[in-house]
Amino acid sequence: MRASDDREPATGNSASEPTSAEELREALAEVRAGRCDAYERVVELCQSRLLSFAVSLLKNYAAAQELTQDAFVRAYRYLDRFEDRRPFYPWLATIAFRLAQDRWQQQRRDRELAQRYGAASEEGAARDDPLCTVIADEESRRLWQAVQGLPGGERAAVLLFYRQELKIREAARVLGVSSGTVKTLLFRARRHLREALGAGAAGAPGR
């Protein structure tokens, strides 16, 4: 699990990526030129990836779908703030991550209120586990289950760098921290994963 280099991770689907990136740039240009219907193409190109990120953050598919929709709506509303010279997806992921943070804060407040009034909080009692249906390999599934148990910042850094395949600096922008902090979070995540899975079991998460 290496995080020292600030590279574009390999994906095994590289041949189609330039085409998709160009389609996304063209769709965004059309939206900014006043063709609102072109935003549907933006959603099509980014939805699957963003939903996967949201599921990993919230660990609940229905909540992740709602967050994904909210992120696209907010991105459309503030599209004039997006800088064309930067990739669009990291900016979109930043919006989704901040919406997730809002949800976590609300859940924390709800739990505190429930505890204050003696109500047993059932938050998360029946959460979906989409990783079990997506990852067939047992070892990889165990690794991603361990990732879900990491502290929030470490989990987000791992998901962005390994799952979402963002560069270190792009992950840093999403999290609102420095590149050095992301590297530190990934270092700590590796240590925690080794402790959770046993020495030698915590390699880089599969993509």
Task: Looking at this protein, list some descriptive labels.
207 residues; mainly alpha; Rna Polymerase Sigma Factor, Chain: A; 2 domains; disordered N terminus
Rounded radius of gyration (Å):
18 Å
Strand content: under 5%
Output the CATH homologous superfamily of the largest domain: RNA polymerase sigma factor, region 2, helix turn helix motif
Number of strands: 0
Query: What's the number of helices?
Result: 9
Largest sheet: none
> Secondary-structure element order, as H and E?
HHHHHHHHH
**Could you say what the CATH architecture of the largest domain is?**
Orthogonal Bundle
General form: globular
Report how far apart the termini are.
Answer: 12 Å
Number of self-contained structural domains: 2
Rounded mean pLDDT score: 77
Structural class: mainly alpha
CATH class bucket of the largest domain: Mainly Alpha
Name the helicity range: 55-70%
Outline the low-pLDDT stretches: 1-18, 119-136
CATH topology of the largest domain: Rna Polymerase Sigma Factor, Chain: A
